Design the sequence.
């Protein structure tokens, strides 16, 4: 597999000095260096406030970094991007799924219009050309073409997550970033969603970066694990290597907590 994304020296610095009667809050993420291969699944784990969600937002360009560079699909993006066309290309190549899919869906807008938005804003396709693409995407994520006309309240939690997934891959990105995409789902729907993502990843050749506290899912689908603490990567490696021989104290703590919840005969 070849690298589809290369991150070099990605850094974010935040200093909140305007806090009445409180100490200034200073947080630095990075510098982060990492590579992502085509079709690879990477899990980012760590304790709360480790910087996992912030890193995800920096990767997709939702928040500009202080410095650093991202090379994605042979296009380089500086931390402080300025040109709209550069950011638009980045929008095509990397997309994000949020944890609570229902909150990202406007209840007054039908599913078809929600999925139409990324095409309308980022392509020159006509409405007549966009509609069949949307219907095809609905079937690809396990929904019906008729769901084009459904509203949020007419969908189950699992169906809402499928709509969020459809919107994320509507522009055929190379990398999909997901922040706790399974946390709000019940176990049955969670299993179906995981299998769907694995299927789409194989069909589309997507690289998948996801943040999760569920190490059972991480062990099941991740090729590689990145462990974060206080805004830095403290350990990374192949999934089974991390689970069998964790090196850093944070990694050992997370793996031990996972093992304490799993029947011993299933741990290898």
Sequence:
């Amino acid at each position: 597999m070849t690298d589809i994304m290369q991150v070099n020296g990605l850094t974010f610095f935040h200093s909140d000095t305007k806090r009445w009667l409180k100490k200034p809050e200073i947080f630095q993420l990075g510098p982060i260096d990492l590579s992502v291969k085509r079709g690879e699944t990477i899990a980012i784990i760590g304790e709360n406030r480790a910087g996992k969600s912030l890193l995800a937002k920096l990767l997709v360009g939702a928040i500009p970094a202080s410095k650093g560079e991202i090379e994605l699909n042979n296009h380089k993006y500086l931390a402080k991007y300025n040109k709209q066309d550069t950011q638009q290309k980045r929008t095509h190549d990397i997309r994000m799924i949020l944890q609570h899919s229902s909150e990202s869906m406007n209840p007054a807008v039908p599913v078809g219009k929600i999925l139409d938005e990324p095409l309308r804003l980022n392509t020159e396709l006509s409405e007549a050309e966009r509609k069949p693409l949307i219907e095809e995407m609905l079937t690809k994520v396990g929904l019906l073409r008729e769901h084009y006309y459904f509203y949020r309240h007419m969908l189950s939690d699992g169906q809402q997550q499928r709509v969020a997934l459809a919107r994320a891959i509507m522009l055929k990105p190379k990398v999909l970033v997901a922040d706790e995409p399974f946390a709000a789902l019940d176990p049955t729907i969670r299993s179906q969603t995981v299998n769907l993502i694995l299927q789409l990843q194989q069909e589309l050749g997507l690289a998948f970066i996801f943040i999760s506290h569920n190490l059972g899912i991480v062990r099941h689908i991740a090729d590689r694990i990145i462990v974060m603490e206080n805004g830095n990567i403290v350990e990374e490696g192949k999934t089974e290597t991390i689970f069998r021989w964790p090196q850093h104290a944070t990694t050992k703590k997370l793996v031990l907590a996972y093992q304490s919840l799993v029947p011993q005969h299933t741990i290898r």
The domain at 3-103+174-266 is CATH 3.40.50.300 (Rossmann fold). The chain has one domain: 3-103+174-266. Confidence is low (pLDDT under 50) at residues 82-86. The longest strand covers residues 3-16.
